[in-house]
Each structure stands twice: as structure tokens, then as C-alpha cells.
Amino acid sequence: MNQTGKFYPGAGEVRYLTSFLAGAVLLPVAGGVWAAEPQGDSGAATTTVTTTTATASGGDGSRLDTITVEGNRLYDMLPSEQTGGYGVDAATVGTKTPAALRDIPQSISVVTREAIEDQNFDTLDQMAKRTPGVRVLSNDDGRSSIYSRGYEYDEYSIDGLPSPMSSITGSVPTLSAVDRVEIMRGPSGLFNSTSEMGGIVNLVRKRPTYDFQGHVTGRYGSWDQRYIETDLSGPINADGSVRGRLVIDNSDTNGFVDHNDNERNNFYGALDADLDEDTTLSLAFLRQSKDINVNNGLPANRDGSLREYRRSKLFGADWNSFTSQSNDWIAELTHRFDNGAYGRLAGRYSNRNADYNYAFGAGGPAAGVDENGNATLMGLGGKADEQSVALDASYSQPFEALGNTSEFVVGTDYKRFETEQEQGRYGALPGFRGINVSDFSPASVPYTDVLGDARAGVAGTNNYSDERNTLEEYGLYSKLTFRPVQDLALIAGGRISNYRQHANVDELDDSTSDSRSDSSRFTPYGGLVYDLDDHHSLYASYSQVFKPQTSTDANNELLKPRKGEQYEAGVKGSYFNGDLNARLTAFRMYDKNRGAATASGDTNDAVALGKTRIQGAELELTGSITDQWDVIAGYTYMDTEIERESTTQGDGLFLLMPRNMINLWTQYGFEGGALDGFRIGGGVTAMDGFSSSSDVEAPGYAVVDAMVGYDFTQSLSGQLNFNNILDKKYYERVGGLNTFNMYGAPASVVASLRYDF
């Protein structure tokens, strides 16, 4: 092991096996070794290296020279798959470089690799359902909408590099290539100025290892759920300076809803190369694909009341389909300077495409189920293509001032998001107006190419559009964390952004096109953290963000961007060397300049007048209480006041956010005695009632889950996950009278085996 904490293995058979498996593979940045520090130290703690020098006469090594090098110990934080448990004491989301959770004056949650595997999370939306403070409007896995504080996460980052995320394109990511997920709540305009107010989701990739490791995982469960994953990692050359990792997985399920098959395939390959002792080049490629028989929910009664259906019922066609593929190429170059500074150049290119064609309940005057039990089926078809580029260059450096260690970060970034979405629909599929919902069979619906018919202007089709949007942004940012005294951190930052947006909409009978640019938009950020003692800190922050809008006014000009701001304060706790973290948070947000449709209801004839105030409180406890006992627990309260209404659709989303939510999951592993090797776990997800803008109301619910596992050997382990063990029947989402009224999954069980090499 060298002074950076890196281990270089000797020659052996394992290395050559890894070389064979990973020779053509790319890999992410390796995590170094993070030296344990007592809690209460700043995230920019200095590292002290002691060296031994011999005297010229004796050579007995009795004299010691101490060299102090300023450097952030967290630059080399270990991946969560290596540290284990549910807790980490640092994150990179919203900070650009790693910072202790106590030193970030905003709400941060980190879900580790072990927490992901204990609960069998395959996709980000599955995980988000069990994450405190996060709300999921469920759809098919990988196509749901994820919200925090009333706002949807419309992009996600990989190692700090963003790209768009939406349910309509199915771009919600899978987690097999992820070491941990970092979630920041609230505006984050310092590093993501044109993002949504909900915050940032950052996926930290699995890191390569300096010695060989690998595992194979297989699962089988209710509704013919199948999952297989292979993960191999290790050195490629003799000294370990080049390393590779390969992750391949496949999942498939018939789903608890009829004809709701869902198959996902993922490939992740990466390569790390140490160009010298202080410089690492990382390259990675991630491909994700989905093939889903879509379930878009059930219709409600026309008076807004929810109907009783069997939970397996599909109100659609057995040919409902959604296919998508996304590709991500990532490159990163990092360097450590002799003065303790850290430099990073990184880029991500993503392209995605999706095709969908499905039937579901009709809207408009035919929406809902009438008094005779009849409803109408509509059709939706479309294609989506996205390309995005994200580039970032940053430099961070700890420095000593007034006897304490402070730190600054400066950098520049660039992003370009291009989206094209073509879509058409049938208001009512031919022959399926006013059909009885009880007698309806999905197999009775003849195949219809909805988009093709809409392009051709076939009678009965409407709302055909081909919309293209481009958002391009350049930014310069800087942040200073200054400690005038050891117990107080003052944080100030700012960003200057230059953005350009272009929107073009083609319809069969009309088209609009407009561009908007702003060359001098400033986004401020400020916060403070005061350490009460070695375990507790008070914090407060102000953050801001702006969001360009795609709606146009009566003159076909894009509306001015929305402006969001947040005030947040609370107390954070960190225990057991950072393995267990707690926070109590209060926040208030304002969303100004929201677009509002005029009386015509046309989004291309809008005015900017919306204003919303959101406030609430959160309590969270996450991490490892002991080496055997892990916990994730949280309570969320949210109150929304719409001061000036914008669109019914936009404001109606706040109605879907419960006022109170509770999340709890805990697991305990036994050591010694008759139960040695056993692990047990359980949890509850609960929320009070919610409703939609169509006055469809759903009662609150609580769902109980459980897990039991056993380690047969050091290499072989098994696990049983029991979901909704009380078989609670409930609606986890409501929407319009026609669709998005979704039952939660019934009781199920999944068995899994894992073998580690």
C-alpha cells in the first residue's frame, strides 16, 4: 500500500483472469482510502504524514521529521460497497468535491450499496419510494416520476454530470452500476442553475478495485420475477495501474397487472488508468434498455370516486408497448497537486430514444366510467430522441487561515440538452367508445399504429405534434468555505450563467418557433454551519435556481424563466465516526413566474403569473447503529400554498403530495450463537390521503415489508424479501378520471442467492 492508500497486488492467476474478462472494458474513477477522523473535524481536514530519516552517523532512524500537507481527506473517500452498512459521512452532490454531510447546509440523503441490495432495488424509482422526503408517482418501473418538496427531478447526474430524466422517455436509471445514490432536496443553482426546484439526484458509479473481486446474483419471485447480475472487477496489468470493471444484468417480470411484462437489460463497462502517482484517467460506458407492456392505470367514476377493480386488471390493449435505449459515455481526468489541491476535468455524452404505442382510458367529455359502467378507450403513440452533453472543469484547494483549514472551489461547466418528441393520439379508439369496463378484455382491441395514423391525419386522431427543444448553458462558479474559528463554517458562492433556449413545435395545422438567451444571470448561494459539539451542528442556507420554460405567449415568444429560492435551517448529527447521520430540517421555498394558460387553455398562449410557496419539515436518521444494525427512518411534513395559480396541470401536482409521509427500514445481522449468519429486516412506508386536480381522492395507507437472509458460507448468501406482507389493497397514485389511478402491488415474495468470488 502506498501513501495514497492504494494497494497494488502482486502477480497471480487472478490478474490474468481479470485481464481476459475486462480487457475491452472501460471503468470509473477508483476511490482511494479514506483515513478515519474523529467527528467534529471539518470536511477539509489536513492530512499529516510522518516520515523517518536516518542520521549520517548512526542510521538508527531515531530522528523523525513531521511533514504537514494540506489536503481534503474526503477526496479519497471509500466506496460504500467497501465500507458496508447504510451510512457514509460525506457526499459530493451539490458540493462538486466531497464534503462531510454535517458541512453541507442543505438536506442530503445517501443510499448505500448495501441498502440497495437489502431491499432489492433495481431502478431509481423503486428506491425513491422507500427514501425519506421523496414522493414517487408510480408507473411501470423505470417510467415513474420522482418528486421532492413538490417538484419533479427532471434530470439526474452521474458523478456530477447531468442529463435529462423523464417518465415519458423512460429514462429513470437502473442501479446495478451504482455504488451509492446521493439525493439533495431543494434548489441547487450554484452548480445546476437551470434545473428544477426539487434538487439533484447524483449516482456515484461503482469503483474499480486494485485486487480481483466479483459476484453473481440471481433472484426469482412472484409474478415470474427473474433477475441475474454479474459484476467483475480488478487489475488488468501487473502493477494494477490499469483496472477494469464489468457489470451485466437482466431482469424480467410479468407484473401483477395482466399483460404488464417489464424487461430490462443493462451493460456497464469501464477502465481506470493511473497516468502517474497523482493523475488518473477514467473512461466508462453504460447502456440501459427497457421493453415494457405499458400499464397506464384505471379509470375512476365520473363523480371522481375510485372504483373497485381486481388489482390485476388492465384497461388497455395487450399490444401496449414501450421500448427505450440509453447510452452514456463518460470520461474523467483527475489530478492531485503538491499543495493539496484537487483538479478534475469530466464529460458525459448521452443519447436516448423511446418508442411507445398504447391504449388507456379516454379524457375529455368521455373521461371516467359512467353510471352504466361504461368507459372509452383512447390511444397514444410517440417517439422521443434525446442527446445531451455535460462538461465540467473544477479546481478545489484547502488552505490555512486564522489557524483553521478552509477550502475554495472554482470551476466552469457546459451543458446542452436536445430533445425531440413526436406524438399523436386517438381521442377514442375506433369501436371502443362506451365499452363496459367489467366485461372488457385487452385482447379484444385490434392493433393500431396510433402515431402513424396521427401523422396521416386519419379521422379520429388529434393532438399530433413534433416538438423540438434545445437548452444550452455555460457557467462560471465559485464557492468558499471559510472557518474564522474551528467551530464555524461560513459558506458563500455564486454562479454566472449564459443560457440559450430554442423551442419549435410543428402541428398539422400550425407551428411555433422561438429562441431566448440570457448572458448575465447570477445565482447566489450562502450558508453557515456551527458545530455545537463533536456530534451536532446547526446550519442555515439560502439557495436559488432558475428554470427556462417551453410555453409561449400569444406572440409565440418563450416565457421568461421561472425563479425559485429556498430558505432552509436545521440541526445535523453524526455518530459512530460518521456511520450514523441524523437531521431535523425546516424549509420554505418560493416559485415565481410560473407559466399559466389563458382562457383558451393553449400552452402556446400563456402568461407568466404563477407563484407558489412551499414549506415543511423533515426528520431523518440513516446509517449503522452498530456493525450489525442498520436503519433508514424519516418523517416528512409539507404544506403548499398557491398564491397565484398557473396551469391546472402544474398546480394539480401539489395535490398529489401527501402532507405527512413516514419511511422506515431496518435490518439486523446476528453474530455468534444459534442465529449466527442470519439477517432479519423490516419496514413501513406510510402516507396520509392525497388527491388530484380532477378531484380524485385516495385515502392514506401503510405498507409493511420484511426480509430474512442467511450467510451459508463466506461466499454464498441467500435472502427472502416479503413485500406488502399484510396484502394491503390501496391506490398508490391517482390521476384523472381516465387514467393514472394505480393500485399498489399486492403481497409478494422474492428469493435471491449471491455468490462472491
Automatic annotation (TrEMBL):
Q: Where is this motif: TonB box?
A: 66-72
Bilayer topology reads: Multi-pass membrane protein
Gene Ontology biological process:
siderophore transport
Chief location: membrane
Task: List the InterPro entries hit by this protein, alphabetically.
Answer: Beta-barrel_TonB, Beta-barrel_TonB_sf, Plug_dom, Plug_dom_sf, TonB-dep_rcpt-like, TonB_box_CS, TonB_sidphr_rcpt
The protein's matches in Pfam families, at most eight in alphabetical order, are given as: Plug, TonB_dep_Rec_b-barrel
The protein depicted here goes by the name TonB-dependent siderophore receptor
State the organism named in the record: Kushneria marisflavi
Q: Give the taxonomic lineage as stored in the record.
A: Bacteria, Pseudomonadati, Pseudomonadota, Gammaproteobacteria, Oceanospirillales
